[in-house]
Amino acid sequence: MLRRRCNDDCLLAPYFPLEEVESFAVVHKVYGASNVIKMLQVVEERNREDAVKSMVYEARGRLRDPVHASAGTVFHLQKHVHDLLEQLELTRASILESKGQINQLLSSQKDVQYHDHQPKSTIFENAAIENGDIVLDDTILGNNLIEFPAEC
Predict the structure, then answer these.
(1) pLDDT in tens, the chain (152 residues)
(2) How far is residue 107's CA from residue 126's CA, in Å, rounded to a whole number?
(3) In terms of Cα–Cα distance, which of 2, 38, 40 is closest to 22?
(4) CA-to-CA distance for 30 and 56, rounded, in angstroms?
(5) PANTHER family attached here (predicted)?
(6) Given 30, 64, 98, which residue is the final one in a domain?
(7) What is the span of the domain harbouring residue 130?
(8) Is residue 12 part of a domain?
(9) Which of 61, 120, 128, 129 has its CA 20 to 30 A from that of 10?
(10) Is the pTM higher than 0.90?
(11) Do 137 and 77 share a domain, yes or no?
């Protein structure tokens, strides 16, 4: 597979242990060992481990998708998040609509129950008898009493 092994003073040895030969093979195939060494030399030592992890991730992405590499995965995930946010908004709107319908039904039900339990009133409840005649209040009838001409 690989032509030579890394010795103890090799720059790559701390980042590619023998258990992770496959990771080095992927990075080597995409970048080449000498390019990986050049890239690591310009990175501060405290950041080299992260740089190697990034190279391995990007190299695997490049082998999986030569055109978009890991950016293709990022775009796919961003689209998925966008689709889920749209679905969430539709669900929230549906919930609000359902709550409105429930409130409307409860309100209608309360009105029906209120009217069913109210005593039935007649227009004669507030009527008065004066000199043997029944006198109705015009507010009970819901209109003004008709005024007749004086000559009647």
Answers:
(1) 455 677 767 889 889 888 888 999 999 999 999 999 999 999 999 999 999 999 999 999 999 999 998 898 899 999 999 999 999 999 999 999 999 998 888 888 777 766 655 555 554 555 555 555 555 555 545 554 555 555 65
(2) 30
(3) 2
(4) 9
(5) LOB DOMAIN-CONTAINING PROTEIN 1-LIKE, LOB DOMAIN-CONTAINING PROTEIN 4-RELATED
(6) 64
(7) 69-141
(8) no
(9) 61
(10) no
(11) yes
